[in-house]
Amino acid sequence: MLDSLGYGFMPSAWVIYYFKTTFNINAMTLGLIFSINDMLQSISAIPSAILARQFGPIKSTILTQIPCGLFFMMIPIAGQSLIPATILYFLNQSLSATDVVPRQILLTSIVSSNDLPKVLGTVNIGKQIARSVSPYFTGLLAGSGLLWVCFIISAALLITANVLLAVNFRTADAEIMKKQSVHHDFEQ
């Protein structure tokens, strides 16, 4: 939920606002940037499954989400330069959805199939509530000319959430991959 709280600080509407006000770009350029962004985000599901299979759900999440947060954190460092900020945003977004498949693997591996619908529903409600709190604070910071700080807060929360995930589930990859290999060997 901590990562969802972080994502709530800079949803795409605020990122668009930041790009518009910081770089003073026209609507067509904004549309192009965010169209490419959406394509990158949707394509990122493909390597997500491959990485989860190769490294396990926890390691693959850490390998993608910490750099994702770092790229996002660096966007305001680009200053008034549109191209570096856009590249950092594209790098961030190309990794932002790579945790979806690994987290699904993790949840389906540790939660019984009978409880899975309840758990997934509860997780989604919690994520939505966490995301709904942050925009208020983003508005306060933006109103004070500090919108750039929200990139740092968002990224810091994402990175912290993933470090906590790694610490709390450090043995999960081995256990999950062992289960998968047993199922795989059984099928042969």
TrEMBL record:
Membrane topology: Multi-pass membrane protein
A Gene Ontology cellular-component term: fungal-type vacuole membrane
Key words, A-Z: Membrane, Transmembrane, Transmembrane helix
GO molecular-function terms, A-Z: transmembrane transporter activity
Pfam families xref list: MFS_1
Regions that span the bilayer: 15-36, 69-91, 146-169
Coiled-coil portions: none
Location(s) in or outside the cell: Membrane
Keyword Transmembrane helix: yes
InterPro entries in the record: MFS, MFS_trans_sf
Xref: PANTHER family: ABR173CP (PTHR23520:SF2), TRANSPORTER, PUTATIVE (AFU_ORTHOLOGUE AFUA_3G04000)-RELATED (PTHR23520)
Stated name of the protein: Unnamed protein product
Organism of this sequence: Ambrosiozyma monospora (Yeast)
Organism phylogeny: Eukaryota, Fungi, Dikarya, Ascomycota, Saccharomycotina
